[in-house]
Specification:
The complex is a heterodimer. Chain A is α/β, with parallel strands linked by helices. Helix content of chain A is 19%, strand content 27%. Chain A has a single domain, classed as Rossmann fold. In chain A, the strands form two sheets. Chain A has a nine-stranded mixed β-sheet, sandwiched between helices. In chain A, strands 5-8 form a two-stranded antiparallel ribbon. The mean pLDDT of chain A is 96. By secondary structure, chain B is of the alpha+beta class. Chain B has two domains: 329 residues, Phosphoribosyl-aminoimidazole Synthetase, Chain A, domain 2, CATH 3.90.650; 208 residues, Phosphoribosyl-aminoimidazole Synthetase, Chain A, domain 2 (Alpha-Beta Complex). Chain B has 24 helices and 26 strands. The two termini of chain B are 50 Å apart. Classes of the chains: A alpha/beta, B alpha+beta.
Amino acid sequence: MKTAIIQFPGSNCDLDIFHVLKDVLQIETDLVWHTNFKSEDYDGAILPGGFSYGDYLRAGIIAAHSPAIDQVEIMAQEGKPIIGICNGFQILIESELLPGALLSNQTRTFICKWVNIKVETNNTDFTRNISEGTILKIPIAHAEGRYTIDPKGLKDLRENDQIVLRYVDENGNLTKIGNPNGSMDSIAGICNNDRNVFGLMPHPERASEKILSPFSSSDGLKILNRFVHT
Amino acid sequence: MDERSTIKLNLTQKEIKEAQIRLGREPNETELGMIDVMWSEHCSYKSSRKLLQKLPKEGKKVVVGPGYDSGVVDIGDGDIVAFKVESHNHPSAIEPYNGAATGIGGIIRDILCMNCRPVGLLDSLRFGNLQSSHSKWLFQNVVKGIADYGNCTGIPTIAGEVEFDESFETNCLVNVGCLGFGKLKDLKLGRMDNPGDIIILVGGSTGRDGIHGVTFASRVIGEESELDRPAVQIGDPFVKKLAIEATLEALRTGKVTAVKDLGGGGLTCALSEMSSKGNSGLEIDLNVIHVREGKMTPYEILLSESQERLLFTVIPEGQRKVLEIFERWGLSYSIIGKVTHTGNLVAKYNGRIIVNIPAKLLTNSPLAVRVAKKPKIKSKKSISRPAIPSNISKTIFHLLQTANIASKDIIYRQYDHEVGVRTVLKPGDSDAAVLRLIGKNKAVAIKADCNSVHCFLDPYNGHASAVAEAARNVVATGAEPIAITDCCNFGNPENPNVYWQFRQAINGMSYMLKGLKIPCVGGNVSFYNEDETTGNAVKPSTTIVMLGLIEDLKLITNIALKRTGQSIIMIGKTYSELGGSQYYRLIDFPKGKPPNAVVSRENASIRSIIEAIRNGYLTAAHDCSRGGISITLAEMAIKGNLGLKIDAKLIPRNIKVRIDDLLFSESNARFIVTTPKPLARKVLRLARKKGAPAAIIGEVSSDNYEITWGKKRIAWNSIDQMRETWERAIPEAMVGP
C-alpha cells in the first residue's frame, strides 16, 4: 500500500506522520506537495495537521480550495482510505467531504493535552481492529476543534454510525470534564457515509511511540495501522 | 538633508565626534542613523562586552561560541545543537501580544541561520503581581502572542519559567529561546567571505514598522513610550513557517554561502555584521528592495525592522536554483547586490551612492565607560526572626497558592509542546524539558532559570545560584549539563548601582560556570529595563538557558513519585537561608540571608545524581529550590498522585537550622530522589563517595502528605486538596479586572 501525505503551505505535522508511517510502521509513504498530488498514484492519503495558509480567514478553508482536494474527492469516491488529522480534519470539513463545522474551543484558547478517546464504532476502515468501547490515550493540540452540526446532521451521524471517536473522562464516561473543547456530543472524530474518509482532532502520530506517551502507550498506531493493510 | 533630520539620535556628542574621525568626514543623515543604531547598547554591547569576556567559553563540545547568531555544541555522531535566548522586553512592555510574538520570530531565525532545524522554543517571563490589572493584561497577551506565533510555526514550546514580582510591573521581561538540531558538516556561519556572491533579501516586505526599535530598546520606559508603539513590529508566523522550510531547502542545495536574520537594526545590522565578520564589503541598490509602502526613504529602508526577513548570500551560478525554491514556497525576494572586497558598505539609491561606510566602523562601536558602585544598605538594624508558623500545613497550602509556585498549566496548555514528535518530558513533568533525536538513542534536556529576588539581594550568589539551579534541573532528568546561553536583564547601566549589579552577576555566573566546567556559548544583554516615571529598575535577572545531553534514552527521569514504599532520599545540606525565599515573601519578611552558591557542594550533589541515574538507582529526581523541601515534596506527590511520609529530623542540615529553615529554605545543591528500598543504601554510599551529604528521610505512601519531627506530626495534608489548590491558584487570580 502506498500512502501520500499531502503538504499544504503551513502544514506542520507532515514530517511527524511521515516518520511514523515510514519508520515505525514501515509503509511506503511519500510527502507530496498539494499541487502535485494525483489520486491515481496512491492507495490512501493523509491530510496532516498544522496551520495551512496560517489559518487565515478560517482554519482549513483556503486549503479546501487547493487542486489537491479535487484529487482527494476522486480518491474518496474510489473508496480509498483518507484521514484528516486536526487541520486535515478542518480541511475535510471545509471541503464538505465531511459534515459539520469546527469552531473555536469553548475555552477560547489553544489546548495541547493528552485526552481519553473512546472508539464508538469499529465499522470503519480505520477502527476495524479496535473493539468498540476501547479508550485510547492520544493528545489534542488545536484552537478550533469544537465540533458542531445542525440537529438533523447530528441525528444522521448517529443513525448512520458515523461518530467514530468521542472524548471521555478517565472512567470512560461522556462528561463535561472529559470533553476538552466543548464539542457537540463529545465528538472527536467522524467518518463519511462510505466509511472511508475519516477526520479527527486528536493526533495519532503523536501517540505512536511509547517513549512519547506519558502512559507508555502507542494507541495512535491502532488507527494508523490501517495504512499497513491493502 | 530631508525631513528625517528631525529623528532623535541617541548618540552622545563624543560618539558623533568619534564617528567623524573614523570616517574622515562628516557622516550624512542616513549614515548617522545607521551609526546610531549600530552603536546603540542593543546592537553594540558597548557597556557589557568587556565584562562578558570573563565568562568561560571554551569546551570540548563547543563548535560556535559567542558572537554569532547562536551558540553551537557538538553532541556526537556528527549531530549539533544550536541554541540562543534573547530578550524582547521593551516591545512586550508596550505591545505585549506582538512584542512577544516577534521575539519568537527573531529567535527562530537565529537558529535557522546556522543551518539547524528549530525544534524547540522556551520562554522565560517576568511580570508584576497578578493582583494588578496591568500585569494581568501583559501576562495574558504575552502568553497568547507566544502561543499564536509559536504554534503556527510548528515548533513546540517546550520549557520556560515565569516569575511574578512587583519590580516587573511596568517593565515585564520576555526572554525567548530556541534550539535547533543540525549536522556538523552542514553548519553555516552568517558571514560574507566570498566577494562576488549575490545578496538576496527574502521574505516579508520592508515597511515602516520597527524603525529605530533598537534605540527604543536602549532607553528606559517612560510616559512617552506609548508613542513608541509603532517601533514594535508585527509578526506573520505563516510567512515564518514558509521561510523556515524554504531556507532549509535552499541550504541543502549547497549554493548558499551564508544566511542571516534581519532583526534589531534591520538591513544595516545584518549587512554590516556579515561583511565585517567576513572581512569583505558589499554594494546594494535600495531601489530594488520589495517594500510594503510607497515613498520609503533610504533611511527607512536601511533601518526598518520589519519581520520575517532573511538575507542570503549565494554563489552566482546557484542563484537560479535558490530563487526557484523561494518561488515555490511563495516567498517574495529581491536580488539587492553583491559582496565586494572593499570592506565598505555601499548603498545606492536612484543611481546615486548615498551610503559609503566601512562595515567595521558600524560593528566596532567605542566602548562606553561605566562606573560600578555597590548600593548602600539602608539599615543595618537586625530584626529578630519571625516566629515559626503555628500551622505548618496551612503555610504549605499558602505557598502552593503563590503565583510563583502554583501550577503553570494555564500557560503551557496554550502552547503546542508536542509537535515534532520529539518531546519526551513535557512541561510540568520534570525540572527540564527533554527532546529526543529521532532515530537515535539520545536526547537533550533544556531549561531556563533565574530567581530574581535572590539575584537582587545578592547579585553574585544569586546569579551563581541561577547557573547551579539550571544545571541541577537538567541533571534531574538524567542529563549531563554541557553548555549555557544567557540573557541578562538589568536597569540603566549608566546608573553605577545597576552597573555594580551587572558586574557582580557576571562574576557570580563566571565562578559557577568555571567550577562546573560548563561553557557559555552565547548571550544577550538587555539594559534600560527601568520605569522612567518611578525611577524603578527591574530586579536584576539573568536567564540561564542550560543544555544537557542524555546519552541513553533509558536514563530519562521525571519528578513524579512512582510506587508506595519506595525510599525518599535527600541529597545536599539545608542551611538557614530564607532571605528572598518564597516563604519570607509570603509572610512579607524583608530580611534574612539569601542562599550561598558553592561550587564544591554543587559538584558533589550533581555528580551523585548523574551517577545514581546512570546506575539505574533512581525512580524520580527533583531539584529542591523555590519554596524549599516542603514544596519540592508536594510537587513530587501531586505529579505522582501518591502520598509520602517524611521525618524532618532526618534531613541533612547545618547545626543551627530551625524547622522553618528545614521546610522552606531555598539552599542550593539539593535534590530529592526516590529509589526502591533495596537500592537506598547504594544511593547513600554513592553520595558519600562524591562528598554530598545524603539521608533517607522517608518513604512514598498511598495518599497523604505527612511530615513529622521524630514521632510528632507537624504537617498533614491530602494530596488531592493540595493539587486542587496548586492548580487553581493562577486561573483564579486571572478572574476579574
